[in-house]
Structure prediction request, 598 residues.
Amino acid sequence: MGISPLTYTPWSGTRMGRLKNVLRIVFEEAKIRVTVWSLIIILITYLLVYINAFYQAVRPAPIEKYGYVSTIGNLYLYMMLLSAYLAFNIISRDLKNGSIILYLSRPITRIEYIVSKFLAVCFHLSLITIVPLLLVYIIDIASLPQSSKFITEASKLLLPLIGSALLMVILFGSVTIMLSSLTKDGKWASAGVFGVFLIGGFIAEIVGSALNNNYAYLFYLWNSVIIVVINMFGMRISPRSPPWYHLPWYYGLSIIIGAIVLSFSVVYWRFLRREGIVA
Amino acid sequence: MTDDIILANDLSKWYGEIIALNRFSASIGKGVTGVVGPNGSGKSTFFKIIMGLVRQSSGTIRVAGEKPWNNPKLRKILGYVPERDIFFPWMTGEEFLVKSARLSGMQTNDAKKKAKELLEIVGLAEDGGRRIYGYSRGMKQRLKIAQALIHEPEIVIMDEPMSGADPVARRKIMDIVHQIDASGRCVVISSHILYEIERMTKNVILIYRGWAVAQGRVEDIRALMNMYPHRIRVVCSNARDVAKELIGMNWVKRVGVERDNELIVETSMPNEFYTNFPKFCVECGVHVDEIRSLDDNLEAVFNYLISRRLNYAAGGERE
Ligand SMILES: Nc1ncnc2c1ncn2[C@@H]1O[C@H](COP(=O)(O)OP(=O)(O)O)[C@@H](O)[C@H]1O
Ligand SMILES: [Mg+2]
Prediction:
């Protein structure tokens, strides 16, 4: 027993692939972050999504109607909860514990670290979006009367469902990573999640109703999401829905892409422009 | 020299207005090298630059011939014991080691085997299954060392591994450093206490306010330090008369009487003083209650060394 004698000759080892590196960290992260709290949030989400779906299902022919918009609206709230939990943990905790140095003193680049953390967050968010949406969709199809009209209607829904879920996962994932990298005190990162995803709602309500201007509602990220889901992916909505739901899809999409780009720019600045994150 | 594994040339690093490294130059080869300097002198900054965690503001650094910044493949042959904690406190020691190994690209099975082996080496075999938040300071230090060795690095950088460790852990850590040295690796280890380093290596770099003040063998540095006017407080009977006698001795530079029973002796030959003073006391019949050095701290010595170097650089007087 003892420290084995030096056998290593420099650079002779196999070069680790970047992708392998990233996948390894994502796997490690996914393992750790599924703790009691995240499980509770995920379980509650599933329950609520099914209750919502059931409520929609008892009404006639929900697929041809607009049940999914309200399901996606609920998901926006649950994702906010899970994002707040993840923001508390994902990078803030590494900054607080100093474990970021453990990653960065190993053969891992800063970009690999960020991408892995982002993918780990996306993995968790997918558990409460894409998976329940598809489950509800399958249950709906199986439980409703099968007709050729129904089949074409139902197949048209698949793209909007997956598209809107992916869009929300990437949006929430990047904002979560950004907020978590900004502070070592996780509770500020969590508070930030509610700030980003809710405060816009208040601004939109106040400015929008005061000026009677539909564009003001774009402040609320949910409105941007739903504008894309309806006008780009072609999800059906109730005719009584608010007028700003009918703004052109590229307005909503630009706001969402803007938020994602801004988030990654902040993370880039935090990790690569300034090394202060480890000093 | 081709033997140099780490080569720093005119390395400077600013944190805003604060200068942490100031045209620091050093070369480090195989074996154990100590980096010694008081707190805030730039030891950790130098190590962070070696690890590629921080980028220098100016100057060059080569580790195994490579630039460390943004160079992940270099970190395959580097092991790092950071100053601060890097743990996931909810993990057990063993889980933490396995995760560290995984991050270095090891397979889970190899990682588990290696983790057990290293827990044994650092003396944590019994505590490997306990959660890290319950560990003592000394145990955490040893776990950090295990983490740094798990991927069998060629160069091991240890930032104050002894700090806060209890005597048992200290012994263990020294023992590990000797083992790493014996296995043919390069070890760089920092401390603010010279005697601690002396027990592990003869080869030291003195750093003060970001300067490499001196590099060489401990004996040479000790000799340099002995040239520094050393002040010693002597508590004895009849201080005034003793002072008169002492001033005639060639191993005494100056004597000041503080109180009736207290003297401050200044000498540039502390070794001579400590060998001759007892003899002197016997000859003169002086009863001594206490002898205490006032300049044991490195900081005073460093200040002195720096001022000598500055004088020298400015063409001023040399001693
Ligand atoms: N992230 C930082 N921001 C500002 N100043 C720093 C930072 N890190 C270190 N310093 C300063 O740089 C100097 C050297 O610090 P350090 O390398 O930690 O010294 P040592 O490890 O020898 O105690 C100190 O004056 C310290 O205050
Ligand atoms: Mg330090």
